[in-house]
Specification:
Helix content: 25-40%
InterPro entries: P-loop_NTPase (IPR027417), TGS-like_dom_sf (IPR023192)
Strand content: 15-25%
Low-confidence stretches: 1-29
Order of helices and strands: EEEEEEHHEHHEH
Oligomer: single chain
Distance between the termini: 19 Å
Largest sheet: 4 strands, antiparallel
GO molecular function: ATP hydrolysis activity
Structural class: alpha/beta
Number of strands: 8
GO cellular component, one term: cytoplasm
Length: 167
């Protein structure tokens, strides 16, 4: 999956992306949007839902709800120059009002889908994973969508020789 935001400037000049998922907001402050992807005008947020001592989590522990809260705050901060400090999608707007602010390209106006990234063993029964349950509850609370994937399995499938792929 490719980011629609690459090195350069996002439409509307709200933030500039840099390699490694770092971005600078309108004030030049660094924000980390590395787990955020924009696809078909929807935001996909990949959330870690597995334990692995070989892969260090930035906060020292796997806590998907905290990760979701941080990403939402970063999107709000990105939009702060435009609105009053809460997700734009949470404001009840008439259709003509939505059209009037569309040119602002607010991240927090876009629909969000949270992507629970699990191990291969959790893929068959993701609801048994407490982290996935946490992401599902957060998605429901935030009126967002949610899907479960295993990036590990996807990476392994991507490396298969063409003749071994099954369609």
């Amino acid at each position: 999956m490719a980011r629609s935001v690459e090195d350069g400037t996002r439409s509307g000049n709200h933030y500039r992306m840099h390699r490694g998922g770092r971005a600078a907001d309108a004030s030049g402050n660094d924000v980390d949007l590395s787990s955020l992807f924009i696809v078909n005008n929807r935001i996909l947020v990949v959330v870690r839902c597995f334990e692995d001592d070989n892969i260090v989590h930035v906060n020292g522990k796997v806590d998907p709800r905290s990760d979701i809260d941080v990403i939402n705050l970063e999107m709000i901060f990105s939009d702060l120059g435009q609105i009053e400090g809460k997700p734009a999608r949470s404001v009840d707007l008439a259709e003509h009002e939505k059209e009037a602010i569309q040119h602002l390209c607010l991240l927090t106006m876009k629909p969000v889908i949270y992507v629970a990234n699990v191990t291969e063993s959790d893929l068959a029964e993701p609801d048994s994973n407490p982290h996935v349950k946490e992401v599902a509850k957060a998605a429901s609370d935030l009126q967002s969508g949610m899907v479960t994937i295993s990036a590990q399995v996807e990476a392994e499938l991507a490396e298969l020789p063409l003749e071994e792929e099954i369609w």
